[in-house]
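Customer escalation, tier 2.

The customer says the design service returned an amino acid string that "doesn't look like it belongs to this structure." They asked us to rerun it and document both sides in this ticket. The original C-alpha cells are below, unchanged.
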C-alpha cells in the first residue's frame, strides 16, 4: 500500500514538474523558432513564457511572452536591443491580444538611399492593431527630406526647416512652404501652400517602404525633431 502511495505521489510530482518547468521551456522554444522564422537573428535571444495556471500551456496559450535580444537584425533593421512583452498569446496561431515594448538603437538600412538611425521605436496595442512611434532627430530629418525632395523633383534644396507642430519650409532658390501630412495610403507628404515651382504635393516617405511603419500621424516637436506614429509594418511572430 505504501509502495502504491509512493508511486502515485512520485507520478504527481513528475507531472507537476513537466507542467511547471517543462511546458514553459517547450513553449519558449516554439516562440524562439517563430521569431527566427519571422526574420529575427541574434546571438542571445531570450524568450520567457509564463501562464497562471501553468496548465494553460498545455493548450499552447500563455499569459505572457517576453522576447529580449541584443545586437540583433530583423529584416532591414539593425537593433541594438529589443525588449517586447506579449500578453494573452496563442502560440500556435502566432497572435497576441496585447503588445508593449521597444526597439532601441535601430538602424534602418535604406531610407531614400541612406541609412537612418532611430534612438527608439516604441510599440504597443495588440491583435491586428500594433502601433509604433519613433522620433527622427531634426538634422537627420532635414537631410532625409532634402534627399527625398531631390529624388522626387531633381532639385537639391539649399535648406530645409522644420517648425512645430507640422510646418516645413524648403529653400530651392525660392521658398516652398507647406504642411506635413499623412496621405490616405500612409505616405508622408508635404502639402504645398502655393505653387511657386509647379509643386502641389511632395511625397517624402513612402508607406511601409522607407520605414517599418505605416504612418497615421506626423508631428514636429518643439525641439524640431520629427515624430512619426503609425502601424508596425512587420510582424514579430511572423
Amino acid at each position: 500500500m505504501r509502495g502504491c502511495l509512493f508511486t502515485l505521489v512520485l507520478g504527481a510530482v513528475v507531472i507537476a514538474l513537466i507542467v511547471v518547468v517543462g511546458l514553459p521551456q517547450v513553449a519558449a522554444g516554439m516562440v524562439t523558432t517563430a521569431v527566427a522564422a519571422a526574420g529575427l537573428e541574434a546571438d542571445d535571444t531570450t524568450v520567457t513564457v509564463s501562464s497562471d495556471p501553468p496548465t494553460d500551456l498545455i493548450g499552447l496559450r500563455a499569459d505572457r511572452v517576453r522576447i529580449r535580444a541584443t545586437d540583433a537584425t530583423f529584416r532591414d533593421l539593425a537593433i541594438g536591443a529589443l525588449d517586447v512583452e506579449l500578453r494573452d498569446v496563442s502560440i500556435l496561431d502566432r497572435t497576441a491580444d496585447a503588445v508593449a515594448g521597444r526597439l532601441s538603437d535601430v538602424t534602418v538600412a535604406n531610407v531614400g538611399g541612406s541609412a537612418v538611425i532611430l534612438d527608439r521605436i516604441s510599440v504597443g496595442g495588440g491583435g491586428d492593431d500594433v502601433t509604433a512611434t519613433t522620433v527622427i532627430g531634426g538634422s537627420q530629418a532635414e537631410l532625409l527630406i532634402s534627399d527625398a525632395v531631390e529624388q522626387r523633383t531633381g532639385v537639391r534644396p539649399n535648406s530645409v526647416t522644420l517648425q512645430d507642430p507640422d510646418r516645413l519650409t524648403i529653400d530651392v532658390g525660392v521658398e516652398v512652404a507647406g504642411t506635413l501630412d499623412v496621405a490616405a495610403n500612409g505616405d508622408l507628404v508635404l502639402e504645398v501652400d502655393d505653387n511657386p515651382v509647379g509643386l502641389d504635393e511632395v511625397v517624402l516617405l513612402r508607406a511601409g517602404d522607407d520605414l517599418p511603419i505605416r504612418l497615421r500621424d506626423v508631428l514636429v516637436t518643439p525641439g524640431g525633431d520629427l515624430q512619426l506614429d503609425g502601424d508596425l509594418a512587420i510582424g514579430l511572430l511572423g
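Tier 2 assessment: The sequence is consistent with the input. The mean pLDDT is 80. The helical segments are 2-38, 138-153. Sent an explanation to the customer and offered a walkthrough call.
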